[in-house]
Amino acid sequence: MIRDLEIQRLIKYAQGMGARVVFSNVKDSEDSAQFALDGSEIIVYAKHQKSKTETILTLIHEISHLLDHIHQHDRQPDVKFEQALDPNRYGKISKKKRKIILDSEITATGYWHTVYKETGLKIPMWKMEAQMEHDIWQYDFYYEHGRFPHRKERRQMKKELYAKHKNKK
Questions:
Q1: How far apart are CA 167 and CA 169, in angstroms?
Q2: For the chain, how many structural domains are there in total?
């Protein structure tokens, strides 16, 4: 029940900033969620959410992009970021473009604590911090290798980070 209320608060928080939050059962997405680059929508792919806590962490991640869009870009398109994400229109996603993506992810994680505090979340802080570090690790891996870590690599890193952060609490 508490997690359901937290999810609803996160949805209202995003809506208060002008973003629609949609839960989708699309089968072909590799992503847990997606943030519309114009700030209008957050899509959470239900098949990737294994627990309510994971849904909360996914929403925090995407809302942090919304906050970045508002505060760093004044709700205007981040042209370099958009170009880095679109190989069909702008060519291969080079290491230089992957660095733009990584930097955007790092900047957005700076808003996670703000979202946590402003929405009064009660999930353990260590879980959020472990997930933040995991997200940055994935994008850093992508930057270095030109691919995201495989499922086994992600699971192993998540296990290590959860153990590390749980022991810090």
A1: 6
A2: 1
